[in-house]
Amino acid sequence: MTETTPVDITVTGTAGRMGQMLVQAVRENPACRLVGATERAGHPWIGRDLGEAMGGPAIGVKVEDDPLPVFARSRAVLDFTSPAATVAHAALAAQARLVHVIGTTGLEGHDLDKLEAAARHATVIRAGNFSLGVNLLTVLARRVAAALGEEFDIEIVETHHRHKVDAPSGTALMLGEAAAEGRGTTLAEARLPAREGITGARPAGGIGFAALRGGDVVGEHEILFAGPGERIALRHIASDRMLFARGAVRAAIWGVGQKPGEYGMTDVLGLS
């Protein structure tokens, strides 16, 4: 591929709010080209021109419910759908040797195992958040956690709009994983259960989470290191969802030409 050849991209789940933003981000970037759009079977957008379905002029891309032929004409796929759909997409992306950019949240261990298997053949770029600021925050969280001892308790507080269905957010978990790595452990070992009722004293070395929901908040994340006599707070506020979409497009473009494997946004940004 030459530098002037645009990357052919498919967007999955195009009827959703994030799906439509991904479509917009692809179409506004001259380094890529929208060649496919998918939705679940039975969705009213199936068979329609995507531009018209989104309330604008026709763009010459039809919404389809079978991702296989759509993936076959693509170099990269942007996927902010559901865990089940993403796992299914990953198998198809592996067959087609595509760049699979994943922003889906709520993935569990068995889902991640399947994504790891798909990454033997596909370039999988998965992130809880595709913004530059959050990924810088992740790097800082890892370094601060490594510098501070267990006398500093770690709490991660995230706030999102009232329609978000999973908690903690993928970004909060990403921050927790970074902090755990900085302390030489894993989030699975350090994560504290949700608090309710008589919980007893906070155990040392744990990483706690609080999830707030309300209004139309795009996304706010704070990681708090609370020690004896002082607190350190690192915070990121997102005010425009398009920053996530543009970051995902940037990841797709970066991924073309990379070897199969699992990558994160810190790899894309050169922060690893």
UniProtKB/TrEMBL annotation:
Superkingdom, natural source: Bacteria
Pathway the protein takes part in: Amino-acid biosynthesis; L-lysine biosynthesis via DAP pathway; (S)-tetrahydrodipicolinate from L-aspartate: step 4/4
Annotated catalytic residues: H160, K164
Annotated compartments: Cytoplasm
Catalytic activity from the UniProt record: (S)-2,3,4,5-tetrahydrodipicolinate + NAD(+) + H2O = (2S,4S)-4-hydroxy-2,3,4,5-tetrahydrodipicolinate + NADH + H(+); (S)-2,3,4,5-tetrahydrodipicolinate + NADP(+) + H2O = (2S,4S)-4-hydroxy-2,3,4,5-tetrahydrodipicolinate + NADPH + H(+)
GO BP, sorted A to Z: diaminopimelate biosynthetic process; lysine biosynthetic process via diaminopimelate
Positions of the Dihydrodipicolinate reductase C-terminal domain: 133-269
Assembly with partners or alone: Homotetramer.
Role description: Catalyzes the conversion of 4-hydroxy-tetrahydrodipicolinate (HTPA) to tetrahydrodipicolinate.
NCBIfam families reported in the protein's UniProt record: dapB (TIGR00036)
Family assignment from sequence similarity: Belongs to the DapB family.
Name of the protein described by the UniProt record: 4-hydroxy-tetrahydrodipicolinate reductase
Organism of derivation: Thermohalobaculum xanthum
